[in-house]
Amino acid sequence: MVIGTIADTLTRGVESVTGTVSGAFAEPTVRLGVTGLSGAGKTVFITALVANLLDRGRMPQLVAQAEGRILSAYLQPQPDDTIPRFDYETHLSQLTADSPRWPDGTRAVSQLRLSLRLRPAGLLAGLQGPRTVHLDIVDYPGEWLLDLGLMDKTYAQWSERMLARLPHRPGGATVAEALRAENAHAPFDESRARILAQHYTAALHEARRAGFSDCSPGRFLLPGEMEGSPALTFAPLPPDADAPRKSLWREMERRFEAYKRRIVKPFFRDHFARIDRQVVLVDALGAIHAGPQALEDLRATMADILTAFRPGANAFLSQIFRGKRVERILFAATKADHLHHSQHARLSAIMEALIRDARDRARFSGAETQAMAIASLRATTEATLPHKGDVLDVVQGTLLEADNTRGKQAAFHPGALPDDPARLLGPAREGADAWLDEDYAIMRFAPARLTLKPGEGPPHIRLDRAAQFLFGDRL
Ligand SMILES: Nc1nc2c(ncn2[C@@H]2O[C@H](COP(=O)(O)OP(=O)(O)OP(=O)(O)O)[C@@H](O)[C@H]2O)c(=O)[nH]1
Ligand SMILES: [Mg+2]
């Protein structure tokens, strides 16, 4: 363990030394991390951002663009040999096809390099030729950040926490009961371990579907090429200090440690610790729709995720960051096109409130943060319709729902969000089962069919502001 740590620190040390040497001559690079829980909108965000940086007609709030300093933008080959390239072309062609569709879920980390040729600003403008800034965009699942919480926990501590949470989730009670009843002193048996892991993973999936966010270990939900390996075949068992060697409990404990060492640690070291700017996408509307318990779970999960951005709070992180830090973090509530714009400010206020706790506890060690409501790809248009003698602000779009409604146009009023976020977060924290004031419905719209003018990217809401906050200062 200690040897592993020293070696890791050494290689990183060498890396960062060579990094600065070549860095003096190399063109500046901004590494932008894009994360969020499954379905938060990462793939759509990256696709729409890149499309709108290549064709910048809809990016007036990006200052370098407004000043006419972006001479060109182009995609480059991926600089990291071991990270898959973000499949921009496929995603864009699906989103902008004749019958447009949303991208499939993503299973792993991917990355894309976009380079911008810029005319320098300010005093040097007349003296220098154009310069290039590379934007390396990295897409990784937010679930993987949750695994950071495992690094400072023992198997016994993690088990206790998960067994306490499981019974409050759909389908979790029986699994928790079965795990508690398991004879953990029995000699280890692979097929038994597999069954327990399968039941536990099924419970995580069910919790995830019901809108619960803390579903660790994160890789159980998105195993990728690790599926079926021992490091992914364990489950929580009640703490048991007397478990003998070679028992089920001891082997589960060993696998939990292997998961930390072989999966969690390399991700943080190789991907996370290199990020300069970060956007955390949050499907806050989805959680509000799922009900108070899902919203409370999202809040708690956000607090957990955010510890990853406070290296000081975690010994393991301080070690891999070694003084480097994420400089800016944007918390973006996605899919704001489900709401009429009159409600967007309320959605950002809710987003702000969701992360306030975590933010107050520590100031993200100096990182600048902002909360915003955005839509990466606008799928709706707004209208005001007469309704029971009054008028109602609605959004209209093409339905994605069941096959029989597919393709139909619908107007939709999702329920008015409260002015004060506490009206939602309060009941959520107190464990309410349902919202009292409103029924926050949500509809799934298909992406709208687009006809773009030359030089124009796909329609969005505040994607240019998001871009300005995230990397505008470096252009
Ligand atoms: N209306 C609307 N829906 C969106 C928008 N962005 C994402 N969505 C919806 O959210 C779903 C998930 O978006 P993705 O970009 O695939 O989410 P992801 O975070 O990449 O999800 P995983 O890859 O599964 O982790 C999409 O299929 C759309 O239904 C948006 O800007 N507007
Ligand atoms: Mg994705």
Describe the structure.
By secondary structure, this protein is of the alpha/beta class. Helices cover 40% and strands 15% of the residues. The protein has 17 helices and ten strands. The protein has helices spanning 2-25, 42-54, 63-66, 88-95, 143-146, 148-151, 155-165, 172-181, 190-209, 218-221, 248-270, 284-290, 292-306, 315-321, 344-361, 422-429, 463-471; strands at residues 29-36, 70-76, 110-118, 131-139, 277-282, 328-333, 368-373, 381-387, 390-398, 409-412. The strands form two sheets. The chain has a seven-stranded mixed sheet with strand order 2-3-4-1-5-6-7, sandwiched between helices. Helix 15 (344-361) links the parallel strand 6 (328-333) and strand 7. Helix 2 crosses helix 4, helix 13 (292-306) packs across helix 15 and helix 13 (292-306) crosses helix 16 (422-429). The two termini are 42 Å apart. Residues 1-24 have low confidence and may be disordered. The protein binds guanosine-5'-triphosphate and magnesium ion (MG).
Tally the helices: 17
Spatial separation of the terminal alpha carbons: 42 Å
**Form type:** globular
Give the SSE string.
HEHHEHEEHHHHHHHEHHHEHEEEEHH
Write down the overall mean pLDDT.
86
Main β-sheet, in a few words? Answer: 7 strands, mixed
Which strand-content bin applies to the residues?
Answer: 5-15%
How is this fold's topology laid out?
Layout: H1 2-25, E1 29-36, H2 42-54, H3 63-66, E2 70-76, H4 88-95, E3 110-118, E4 131-139, H5 143-146, H6 148-151, H7 155-165, H8 172-181, H9 190-209, H10 218-221, H11 248-270, E5 277-282, H12 284-290, H13 292-306, H14 315-321, E6 328-333, H15 344-361, E7 368-373, E8 381-387, E9 390-398, E10 409-412, H16 422-429, H17 463-471
Parallel strand pairs: 1-4, 1-5, 5-6, 6-7
Antiparallel strand pairs: 2-3, 3-4, 8-9, 9-10
Bound molecules: guanosine-5'-triphosphate and magnesium ion.
The site of magnesium ion (MG) has 4 residues, from helix 2.
